[in-house]
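hey so i finally got around to running the thing on that chain from the lab meeting. sorry it took forever, my laptop kept dying and i had to restart like 3 times. anyway pasting the input first so we r on the same page abt which one it is
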Amino acid sequence: HEERRSLIAIGAGAGLSATFNAPLAGMAFVFEELRGGSRPGDFLAALLACAVSDSLARAAFGQGPIFGTLTFPEASLAYLTLALALGVIGGVLG
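ok and heres what got predicted. didnt touch it at all, straight out
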């Protein structure tokens, strides 16, 4: 049961690492999930799994983010004043 829990946490950390190009976040996730009652070898396995999954994801998809971002044109000053007015009204009503 403990080994199964460790393997699931390590796999989830590796997936997190590969998906978001963030091996440290994957390791932090594994540390949080395995706190208390884990073996030192589990952390080494997690380190290797996160590093390898991140390296493979970067080799396959490149260094940039996998999720794209939207670009919007700059808003004119009239829109910004409208947004400010709506924010103030919403704050007062809230």
